[in-house]
Amino acid sequence: MHHCRFSTLHDRTQIEKLFKRVRDGMKSTALFNWSDQQISQELLLSDFYLNADSDGSVQGFIAHRVNTDFVEIMALGTDPSKIKNGLMLLLLNNFVQNFSNQGLEVTLEVHEQNQPAISLYLKCGFKRIRNRPSYYKDGGAALVMTFLS
Ligand SMILES: CC(C)(COP(=O)(O)OP(=O)(O)OC[C@H]1O[C@@H](n2cnc3c(N)ncnc32)[C@H](O)[C@@H]1OP(=O)(O)O)[C@@H](O)C(=O)NCCC(=O)NCCS
């Protein structure tokens, strides 16, 4: 049984390991380009919404920053051994409902070639609003997407 919740300080080590597992599981580094140092920094700067198992193990995360009138998703990922089980759709649906109930827009950027993530966002109800050409280190464009209920 899974449940969705915001992280506490106790989750920090587990999130850091999961974040790195997600990165190391990527075939293309360009699509999820996070150094160890950036991950450590993100743990300090962002809040995390988590998908946890009944035994407390964390299987998915959404790193995000809450601003006055919008929430920005910085990164998200599911444990590579648990992908394609509907875990992130569940987590993301909960996440956007939670914030749109508070009147906040949810926004994100995604590499134009990250098809699994783009499909996920469209399925969850995100709309593509613009492109940022040559946004990533490999020259790829970012799609800017938002969820507004
Ligand atoms: C993208 C990611 C988070 C999806 O997590 P997941 O838990 O496997 O996703 P779900 O099982 O909930 O899938 C939900 C929907 O996403 C889309 N999706 C997920 N994986 C996909 C894939 N490999 N190819 C195409 N679409 C995919 C589908 O629309 C899917 O719905 P469906 O199963 O009915 O077709 C996961 O692949 C991941 O961690 N990727 C690496 C990190 C990353 O790229 N993050 C995004 C940029 S920060």
Describe the structure.
- 32% of the residues lie in helices and 32% in strands.
- Strands 1-2-3-4-5-7-6 form a 7-stranded mixed β-sheet, with helices on both faces.
- The chain contains 4 helices and 7 strands.
- It has a single domain (3-147), classed as 3-Layer(aba) Sandwich (Aminopeptidase), CATH 3.40.630.
- The radius of gyration is 15 Å and the shape is globular.
- With 149 residues, it is an alpha+beta fold.
- Residues 22, 26, 31-32, 75-78, 83-89, 110, 114-117, 119-120, 123 line the site of coenzyme A (COA).
- Residues 22, 26, 31-32, 75-78, 83-89, 110, 114-117, 119-120, 123 line the site of coenzyme A.
State the CATH topology.
Aminopeptidase
Residues in β-strands, percent: 25-35%
Instruction: Identify the CATH class.
Output: Alpha Beta
- Major sheet characteristics: 7 strands, mixed
> What spatial form do the alpha-carbon principal axes imply?
globular
